[in-house]
Write a structure and sequence with these properties.
The strands form 7 sheets. The chain has a 4-stranded antiparallel beta sheet with strand order 6-5-7-8. It has a 4-stranded antiparallel beta sheet with strand order 12-11-13-14. The longest helix is centred in the first third of the chain and has 30 residues. α2 runs antiparallel to α10, α2 packs antiparallel against α11 and α8 packs across α10. The protein is built from 12 helices and 18 strands. By secondary structure, the chain is α+β, with helices and mostly antiparallel strands.
């Protein structure tokens, strides 16, 4: 299956699952509170499939446009209602009941994320051993006293089992400008505490990359092995194949992926001779690097994806995974909220905002990597979907909750004129956010 097919499949699967979870929240709570649900739809537009269950007043359908969904409830604002059914209309419910129905969609997104991460932790998630493979020159990590070969043991007293275990905790602490205490074990067996103060870090870019790489730490590099090849790249045209191991370039020995990248990137537009081991045979492959520009500099590239270095598994028992999942999701929620707030207030780059193209590509990569990676991806998107829907923007669940809050204060709903104005404002805000997201997606493609 091609990369595009994986992206399309992953995107459609993610949208279907998360929309179904969100709309099921509205549907389930509405039914529990006595509201008649007329239609439950995954997707918009003309139904591709529609059905009813015996004795059930709800029509279930799958729309032709798989980019959302909705739950249609009996409501006097949307048409005539039989006098005998008015007690089942949404608009006739108490303020608390209406608020519960609207809030249930985002709430189910949060519950789904907790369940998904719990499943990942119980099943076991592939990761990297918490060994420090390199410390960047003149970096915060080098100045703090980290050394190549150190093993991360604890972060602020939290046991470290794998490299990415506490990624959201670290990002949360860095965003708050706190000092984080890293406990490491050296090659000599001794342990030492290394505090890193994040108060002086640039908060505008703090969420762009994983915190360890921002302070100058990286795990051991994977071997210089061909994992995946970029289509129509120098590597593909030269005949490199997945599984090939690059042992030397221009007779210079290559020990790992980092050495290969360093050699290739420093030679833009130049011819290279790669010594490659394939199925026990030694081959010589000639190619010319592409010249690409980034950050005002020119680099060489041959079109290889970095191979994963997964030599550890993070796994919990079913009971221990519950608090671990709750903590993971709490940190993820706080980091997402802080990032969104900083982008809206121009204190963080809007380059971090992603649209459907990037989401589709990530969905494809994760579904290809395995179900645990896809579940983690779904959890992150589900949290984001829940939070975005709670924003006080008309047309979103948060906008309806805002109207309910106004009704609670003034004793009556906002006027029709005010609600119409709010809808227009909501559309403008959403179009602006989607425009920025699409722009970022397109820039990433090129």
């Amino acid at each position: 299956m091609s990369g595009f097919a994986y992206s399309l499949l992953g995107f459609l699967a993610a949208i279907a699952i998360l929309v179904a979870v969100h709309e099921y929240g509205h549907f389930q709570v509405a039914r529990k509170l006595g509201v008649k649900v007329l239609k439950f739809s995954i997707g918009f537009g003309k139904p591709v499939v529609a059905w009813r269950r015996k004795g059930d007043p709800t029509e279930y359908c799958i729309g032709i446009i798989p980019l959302g969904g909705y739950v249609k409830m009996l409501d006097e604002h949307e048409g005539e209602v039989d006098p005998g059914e008015r007690g089942m209309a949404f608009n006739r419910q108490s303020l608390g009941a209406r608020s519960a129905i609207v809030a249930a969609g985002p709430a189910y997104n949060f519950l789904f994320a907790i369940f998904a991460i719990w499943l990942v932790l119980v099943a076991g998630s592939d990761d990297i051993e918490p060994l420090i493979g390199a410390v960047a020159e003149n970096s915060a990590a080098q100045q703090a006293g980290f050394r190549t070969g150190d093993r991360l043991v604890r972060i602020d007293g939290r046991e470290v089992r794998t490299w990415g275990q506490h990624q959201f905790y670290l990002t949360h602490q860095a965003m708050k400008g706190n000092t984080v205490d890293f406990e490491v074990a050296g090659n000599d067996g001794g342990q030492r505490s290394i505090p890193v103060d994040f108060s002086a870090f640039d908060q505008y870019t703090i969420g762009n990359r994983p915190i360890p790489s921002q302070i100058g730490l990286s795990p051991p590099a994977p071997p210089a092995e061909v994992f995946r090849i970029v289509p129509d790249s120098p590597a593909e045209r030269a005949g490199l194949q997945p599984g090939d191991r690059v042992t030397a370039i221009d007779a210079t020995p290559i020990g790992d992926w980092g050495e290969m990248v360093e050699y290739v990137s420093s030679r833009p537009g130049q011819g290279l001779s790669l010594s490659v081991r394939r199925d026990g045979r030694q081959l010589e492959i000639q190619l010319t690097t592409e010249a690409v520009r980034a950050d005002g500099r020119e680099f060489g590239r041959i079109g290889l994806y970095r191979p994963p270095l997964q030599n550890a598994t993070l796994r919990y028992g079913p009971l221990a995974a519950i608090p671990a999942s709750l903590d993971y999701n709490w940190r993820m929620t706080v980091v997402t909220l802080r990032s969104l707030g900083r982008m809206l207030s121009a204190r963080m780059s809007s380059d971090n905002l992603s649209g459907p193209i990037t989401i589709a590509r990530l969905a494809g990569h994760t579904i290809e990597a395995g179900y645990t990676d896809f579940l983690k991806f779904l959890a992150i998107i589900s949290i984001s979907l829940g939070l975005i829907n709670l924003l006080p923007i008309p047309l979103l669940d948060g906008g309806h909750l805002l109207y309910f809050a106004i009704e609670a204060v003034k004793g009556s709903p906002p006027s029709r004129k005010a609600m119409l104005w709010g809808q227009q404002l909501g559309i403008a805000v959403l179009v602006l956010l989607m425009g920025v997201a699409f722009y970022n997606d397109i820039m990433r493609l090129f």
